[in-house]
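fyi for ur records
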Amino acid sequence: MASKATKPNLFFFIFDFYLMKGAQDDNDILPEAILYFYPRDEQIRQQKLLDCGEIVGIVQYFQHDLFQSIPKTLYFQNTFVAHEHYGRHSGFLSLSQDHYTSEEAQIYLKHILDLFNMSYGTWDYVHSIYGKDNKMNEFLNQALTPIVDYVCNQKRSISHLFSTIEYTPLKNGNQRVLLESKHCLDYLKSKYGLKDGLIGCDNKVLYSTWDSDTTFYIQLLFQLRKQLPVSICFLL
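which gave:
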C-alpha cells in the first residue's frame, strides 16, 4: 500500500534490537533489523538509513549505561525523535522541530502504537505469529501503513492532541437513545458477563463504558476500518 505524501523530516520505523546481538558490524544488520519504515518509499528509506543508524546507536549507548535511563525523546539539530520500547522491538518517530513540539511527537507515537496494539495484539504476540516465518515485514506493511498515514497526516487540532471523543450528535428529543444504549450494555454485562462495551453510529461514539483512552482509539478505528486488512485485524 502506497503511503500519502509526507511532511519534511517525518519518518517512522520499527526496529528489532534482537537481530543486532552478536553482529560484528551493525551496519550490515541495520537494514534487516528495520522491520518497517514509513514513508513507504524505498528511496527515502535508503536516504534515512544513516539517520536510523545514528538513532539506534544513541539508544544502544543508553542501554549499556547503568546510570542513565533512556530518554523518551532524542533531540537532533532539526528534529525530535520520540521512541517507545517493547521487549525486542522499538518504535521511532522523527518530526521536524520547525513544525512540531516534542510533546506532539510523543502523542503521535503513542497513538500509532496504541492503535496497532488494540487492533493486532501485543508485539510479543505479533512476533510469535509472523516472526517465525519471516513474515513480519509483509504483515507490518499491511497493518501499520494505514495507521501511520492516518495519525501523521491528520490536520493538527486540539481535539486530536488531547484525545477528544466525538460523540454522535442527537436531535432534540432523542436523548432517550442514550438511556436505552446504557440499559442495553448494562443488560449484556449482567446477563453475559460483558466487561465493557460501546455503541456507535455514523462513525462516532453514541455511548461507551470503556475508559476515555480506549473509547478515543475505537473512535479512530471507525475512521480507519476500510483501510485496515480485515483478515488480520481483531476489531473488524
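The first strand starts at residue 11 and ends at 16. thats all i got for now
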